[in-house]
Design goal:
The protein is of the alpha+beta class. The protein has 19 helices and 16 strands. It folds into three domains: 1-39, no CATH class; 51-132 and 276-365 and 400-422, D-Maltodextrin-Binding Protein, domain 2 (3-Layer(aba) Sandwich), CATH 3.40.190.10; 134-268, Periplasmic binding protein-like II (D-Maltodextrin-Binding Protein, domain 2, 3-Layer(aba) Sandwich).
Length: 464
C-alpha cells in the first residue's frame, strides 16, 4: 500500500532554488514540499535553512558528519555545508565574524570568550558533542625512561591509569642534561590544556601559570606547554620539537601506528566522563534564528544517539575516514571508535566509553561542566582576579543554554526519535564527584572551595 501524502510549506531563499526559480532576486520564496506520512519530523518555521558549519579534523566532530550524511539536517529542512578549518583560533574568529553559522569547538572557547580571556564575544552552546576522547602521548624515548617507574600486574602488564609520578624523574633527567621538557596541547583554553595540567599537577609537577605578561602560561613551569594544531601533533613529536602531547583522536593512535610514541593515559582516567567538544553559535544568531537553532540541535542529538548504537560504529568510522571529514585511515579511527584503545604497540585494551556521544546525558550542556572550565581558568591565572562564587554560575548561564537543548529534545520525544527518559531531570548541575585521577572532590556549587583544594595553582578568598 502506498503511503498517504501530506503537504508541508517551506520558506527558502531563492538562492537555494535557482534550479526551480531561475531568478537573481534575493527574496524568500514559499514552496510546497510533498512528504509521506513516514516522516515523523515536526516542521519548524526555519529562519535560515542554508548553513555553513566548521570543524577541526578530530574524531569528536562525528555528530556533524553523521547529521549530514544520515540526512538528519535535511529532515529538519536544513541545507548544511560542513567545512574543515585549519586551527582553533580560525574556528573561533570565523564564528564570531559570521563566516560560519556555527562550529565544532573546544568547550573552553565560548566560556573564555564570555569570561574575559582572549577574544571577547557572546557565544552560546546548546549541545555538548561528546564525552572523553583525548589522550596524553609521549615519545618513545620518554616512554622508555618512564616505563620502569610504572606499576605492573602479576603478568608483567602495565597497570593503568598511569600517573604523572612516573614522569617526574624523566623531567629531572632532561633538566640535568640541559633540556627543557616540552609538551604540546591544542589551545590555551582547550580541555587538553587543562587535562594535561591536571595530570601533571596531581603528581606535584608544576605546569606553569598565566599572567598578563606571560600569555604562554609558563611562569614557574617544570613542563613547558605550547600550542600545536591537532593534525600536526605526530609530526611535531617525531621531529623532537616536543616530547609529548595531549590531543583528541585519531592523533594518539596515529603515533602508535607510526611507531613514534606511546599514549600513557586517557582523559577518561583523568576525569571520568568529562565533557569534551561543544557546538557553538553566536548569541545573535540564536536570537535572530531561534527555530533554526532548535532544528540544528535536534539533528545533532539524533546524530549522537545514532553514534552510540554499537552496531553503527563501523559505518561511522568509514564516514569519518572520508577526506572531507577526518581523513585518517579506517584502522586508525577504528582503534578508539570501536570500543578499544591501543597504548604500547600490541597493547590494545577494551575501553567502551573512550568515545561517548549520547549516553550519560552526553549531549546536555550542564552548567557544572562549564563551571569546571572556569575554575581551571582561574586556577592557572587565565582569569587574573578572584571572583565571587555566584559569578561562576551567572557567567555560565549566559553561555550554556540547556533551555534550547530541552526544547529540541521534547520535540524529538514527540516525534518518537528519543525516549522521554533521556531528558534529564536536573537544575543543570551534576552531583559532586571524585571521579578524577587524584580523587579530589568537585562540587560546581562551591567553585572557590574547589579552586582552593589544589596544592598547585591560585588560591582565592571568598569575594562578596
Amino acid at each position: 500500500m502506498k503511503p498517504l501524502l501530506k503537504k508541508t510549506t517551506w520558506i527558502l531563499p531563492v538562492a537555494a532554488l535557482l534550479f526551480a526559480c531561475g531568478g537573481k532576486e534575493k527574496k524568500n520564496t514559499t514552496i510546497e514540499v510533498v512528504e509521506t506520512e513516514t516522516s515523523k519530523t515536526i516542521s519548524l518555521d526555519i529562519e535560515k535553512p542554508q548553513l555553513t558549519f566548521g570543524f577541526i579534523k578530530l574524531t569528536d566532530m562525528a555528530p556533524l558528519a553523521i547529521a549530514k550524511e544520515k540526512g538528519f539536517f535535511e529532515d529538519e529542512g536544513l541545507f548544511v555545508s560542513v567545512e574543515a578549518q585549519s586551527n582553533w583560533k580560525n574556528v573561533l574568529d570565523r564564528v564570531i565574524d559570521g563566516q560560519l553559522d556555527g562550529s565544532h569547538m573546544l568547550a573552553g572557547q565560548p566560556i573564555a570568550a564570555g569570561a574575559g580571556f582572549g577574544r571577547q564575544a557572546k557565544l552560546v552552546t546548546a549541545f555538548s558533542m561528546d564525552l572523553n576522547g583525548n589522550g596524553i602521548t609521549v615519545s618513545n624515548d620518554v616512554w622508555s625512561k618512564m616505563k620502569p617507574n610504572v606499576p605492573k600486574d602479576e603478568n608483567g602488564k602495565t597497570i593503568h591509569p598511569i600517573k604523572a609520578e612516573a614522569l617526574k624523574p624523566v623531567i629531572k633527567e632532561y633538566k640535568t642534561n640541559g633540556k627543557a621538557f616540552k609538551m604540546g596541547m591544542v589551545f590555551p583554553v582547550s580541555t587538553h590544556n587543562y587535562e594535561i595540567r591536571y595530570w601533571l599537577a596531581a603528581a606535584g609537577i608544576h605546569p606553569g601559570m598565566y599572567t598578563a605578561d606571560n600569555v604562554q602560561g609558563q611562569i614557574d613551569a617544570e613542563v613547558l606547554l605550547s600550542v600545536t594544531p591537532p593534525p600536526q601533533m605526530p609530526a611535531t613529536l617525531e621531529a623532537g620539537t616536543i616530547f609529548g602531547y595531549c590531543v583528541g583522536e585519531p592523533w594518539n593512535q596515529q603515533a602508535v601506528f607510526k611507531g613514534i610514541g606511546v599514549p600513557v593515559v586517557t582523559n577518561y582516567d583523568i576525569w571520568k566522563n568529562n565533557p569534551e567538544k561543544v557546538f557553538v553559535m553566536t548569541e545573535k544568531f540564536i536570537e535572530d534564528n531561534p527555530n533554526t537553532a532548535i532544528a540544528v540541535t535536534k539533528a545533532l542529538i539524533r546524530a549522537g544517539k545514532w553514534l552510540d548504537e554499537p552496531s553503527n560504529r563501523e559505518e561511522a568510522v568509514k564516514i569519518l575516514a572520508m577526506s572531507q571529514y577526518v581523513g585518517a585511515p579506517v584502522e586508525v579511527l577504528a582503534n578508539s571508535m570501536t570500543g578499544t584503545f591501543e597504548f604500547e604497540k600490541g597493547d590494545k585494551r577494551e575501553m567502551s566509553d573512550f568515545n561517548v556521544f549520547y549516553k550519560y546525558n552526553a549531549t546536555y550542556p550542564f552548567y557544572s561542566d562549564g563551571i569546571w572550565f572556569l575554575t581551571q581558568m582561574r586556577r592557572w591565572g587565565q582569569i587574573p582576579e578572584a571572583k565571587a562564587a555566584d559569578w561562576y554560575a551567572n557567567t555560565i548561564k549566559d553561555i550554556y543554554r540547556p533551555d534550547i537543548w530541552t526544547k529540541a529534545a521534547k520535540l524529538l520525544v514527540k516525534e518518537g526519535y528519543i525516549p522521554e527518559a533521556d531528558i534529564p531531570n536536573t537544575d543543570g548541575y551534576k552531583p559532586a564527584t571524585t571521579d578524577f585521577i587524584d580523587g579530589t572532590s568537585y562540587d560546581a556549587k562551591d567553585p572557590i572551595a574547589y579552586i582552593n583544594s589544589f596544592k598547585i595553582g591560585n588560591k582565592d578568598k571568598a569575594v562578596q
